Amino acid sequence: MGVRKSICLWRMVFLFFAFCVPVPILQGALLSERLRESSNEVQKRLEIVEIKFAGNSEISSKLLRSRILTGVSPSAISQFIYKHISERLGSPPVFYDPYTAGADIARLENFYRDHGFFSARVDTTTTVLSDGESLVLTFRISEGPRFVIDSVRFAGLSGVDSALLVQINSQALMRVGEPFTAEVYNGDRNRIITLLANHGYPNASIDSKNSQVLIDSVRHKVIPTITFSLGGQYTFGDIQIKGTHGPVRDEAVVFRQLDFHPGELYSRQKLDNSERNLNRLGIFESVRIEMNIPSPESVLVPIPITIQLQPRPLNELTPELLANDENNAFNLGIGLGYSNLDFIGGARRLTLRGRFRVQSLTHVNFGRVITKTGFREPNLVANAELTLQLTQPYVFSNRTSGNWSLTATADKQLPYLQTIFRNRIGIVNQRATYTFAFLDWSLERVSLDSVSPDFRSLTLAEEDKPQFNSILSFTLQRDKTNDVFSPSTGFFNSGAIEEAGLFPLLLKKLGLPMGGLPFSQYAKVILLGRWYKDLWGNRLGIFAWKIKLGAAVLLAHSNTTPIPLNRRFFAGGSGSVRGWRTRELGAVAKPEFGGNALLEMNFELRWNGLRKLGSPIGIPFEHVWLVPFLDAGNIWATPGDIKPSQLAVASGIGFRYDTIAGPLRIDYGIRIYDPKGLSEHQWFFQQRFFSDVLAHGVIHFGLGHAF
To answer: Which domain holds residue 157?
Structure first.
């Protein structure tokens, strides 16, 4: 009986602890979870209205802000659009998240370490504003000292040629006494790997386990060590050439385009250059250089090379549908070309091409042009050209090519018809990877024919006389843009010098005049620069700008023959100052006859912000760009006439749509400042905005960017 009472008592105690005691514990846990959820709800309601940085002096707040993920809430308008109109067009509010802020602390500290601040520390504070729903987030930074490089060590290079070792060490990016940065450290890694790959070590790599940066916290110095694994040294082995449809017609043509030979040390750069040389010939659809690197069983192991080629047809007939903006105007046209890609052997190319382009599609009676008036139609602006050209791909080396051409051109403008017969010899030399030099000598016969009743009154006495000119020009250009059609980074620079009259003058002094026709004696210089910058690194916004400067002067006072029309400068149009039509702008009496001095500046912001819309109505908005622009420029009669006060200014908005042939372009430009306007109506704000400024705006069409 006593035993049963004892058992019942223990059962009651067990049931009490099993069912009664956990209840308050569970209630406490639930309450804690609710408080945590409530706290999270409070945190989620705290909208970030401002982010500050305190304590930073060496690195700007703008740069630090670009390294964090935490952002600031957008404007009320953007939030309204997001909530009520479209989530794609607007943006949601941004709330404080302690986990993201903590990750940003780590990002900033790593960023500081990458710039040599190895003792930098970052913390955050939040200040809740009076509304209780928003806060200011402050990153408080203790930068500490910046560590400098004590010494630099490159290890694992035993067996490397002494001359290469000198090059590796003498060109080091990391310098003793300079601040350490991860960018320079990685730059040296990549630089040496490239050098090794171009000196027989295709398998060279970084030995990460033995590469390190030793930190001396007392002296605030570092000792970076980069260790390499060479992987054996190789040479170029036997070269085999294969065509996709049987043997290649002339293997000697292929071999002379190669920058390497069997037995030479392997070089990745020579391999890439050789592939470019073969592609530049234009006789192959595709070029692929293949290799199979064997295991390094001995010193200087040869690598067998196989060149896979897909030849193009020997004869090509090419119909053309033309759309371009030559002469700063939109041109439509047709063309037909014939090419022999191996004329009398040696990969020489013979080309015969005819083209017809027209600018004026309205106010022209094309039926009358075809049946009666031809190129003398008063309202017609067009160009017809017939060219025979022979290209020699190899002149002394595979970096130099030559060409010879005969061209007949009829250039019809509103007041005149200009005919040009040209015999040109040209040399093209690749000076470096991105640099080319062009040397041209042209013999030109130019004549003007009136199609306007007042043509005689518009021109000089010598203007309408035929000319026979000898023109020698040299052009040097460097192109480091990253895309042919739509560059987002890089630059294109060119400079050209042109001289006319020296050769016929010598012949004249020898008693051998060139056909008895007058010739012009002048010198001309053209400088052109184009630059492109991706503002945010994701092609959302690209800032592009161009500067062009040109000047031409007559060299002999005794020779009054003017510079021929086709060698003068013109302003206005789709690639110039877009508030004016082509050849409409000039600080000269008749801009359609050009000038001898030019200054142009163009600025564009190419914005691709609509891409986040996707394709809501079947239009892929990732191909759509909006382009506000600002242009300034003019032409003058002589370089001495250039005046900043006569620079015309235009602005407007453009539309681009990317295609495989380049972007389709529509620009609408208005005149901001017209130097030829009445003194009280030169600026746009001095005119009636709708009836004067907008009504006189100009629409331009084009294929490809304006520059």
So the answer is: 148-229
